[in-house]
């Protein structure tokens, strides 16, 4: 799919891109835990915004959430073979907005560090701002 050619989903909808959205630990607790920090919008609301953006842009969007780093890494590796657009291709086409957690609030700084060092981060924010920035930036792409 890197050539930009459209393909038809089982539903009959023709899409031009497949995007994988990875949500890491605790995002499934949006709107439940520490509402004064993370806000009152829940994870289902975030998923609905992502789905709406996918429909508007004629993209197939798969959302994967896990509280386990190994599962996230497995899904990234699976993306290599399933037609998901690579992050560098999306950045080059200005079709992605990358938000990473800043080092000082990150318990395990592996993935955010790799994105930052590769120059792929558009925003680097503290943990308590990640969810709000995702919601605010869904319409930016």
Q: What do you see in this structure?
A:
The longest helix is centred in the middle third of the chain and has 15 residues. The chain is 39% helix and 17% strand. The chain has a single domain, classed as 3-Layer(aba) Sandwich (Rossmann fold). The mean pLDDT is 75. The protein is built from six helices and six strands; from the N terminus they run E-E-E-H-H-E-H-H-E-H-E-H. It is of the alpha/beta class. The strands form three sheets. A two-stranded antiparallel ribbon has the order 1-2. Strand 5, helix 5 and strand 6 form a beta-alpha-beta unit.
**How many β-strand stretches?**
6
Question: How many helices in DSSP terms?
Answer: 6
Which quaternary structure do these chains form?
A: single chain
- Structural domains: how many: 1
Structure classification: alpha/beta
Instruction: Please describe the biggest sheet, giving its number of strands, its sense, and whether it closes into a barrel.
Output: 2 strands, antiparallel
Mean pLDDT reading: 75
Strand content: 15-25%
Helix coverage percent of residues? 25-40%
CATH architectural grouping: 3-Layer(aba) Sandwich
Stated plainly, the CATH topology is called Rossmann fold
Shape: globular
Distance between the termini: 19 Å
Residue stretches low in confidence (pLDDT < 50, at least 5 long) are none
What is this entry, summarized?
The chain has 141 residues and is an alpha/beta fold.
Tell me the layout of helices and strands.
Layout: E1 7-8, E2 14-15, E3 17-23, H1 35-38, H2 43-57, E4 59-65, H3 69-79, H4 87-92, E5 99-101, H5 110-117, E6 123-125, H6 127-137
Parallel strand pairs: 3-4, 5-6
Antiparallel strand pairs: 1-2
């Amino acid at each position: 799919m890197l050539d930009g050619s459209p393909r038809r989903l089982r539903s009959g909808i023709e899409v031009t891109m497949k995007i994988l959205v990875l949500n890491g630990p605790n995002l499934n607790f949006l709107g439940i835990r520490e509402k004064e920090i993370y806000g009152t919008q829940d994870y289902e609301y975030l998923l609905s915004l992502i789905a709406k953006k996918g429909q508007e842009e004629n993209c197939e969007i798969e959302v994967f959430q896990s509280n386990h780093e190994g599962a996230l890494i497995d899904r990234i590796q699976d993306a290599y073979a399933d037609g998901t657009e690579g992050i560098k291709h999306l950045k080059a086409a200005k079709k992605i907005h990358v938000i990473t957690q800043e080092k000082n609030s990150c318990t395990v700084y592996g993935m955010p560090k790799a994105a930052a060092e590769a120059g792929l981060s558009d925003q680097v924010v503290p943990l308590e701002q990640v969810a709000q920035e995702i919601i605010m930036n869904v319409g930016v792409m």
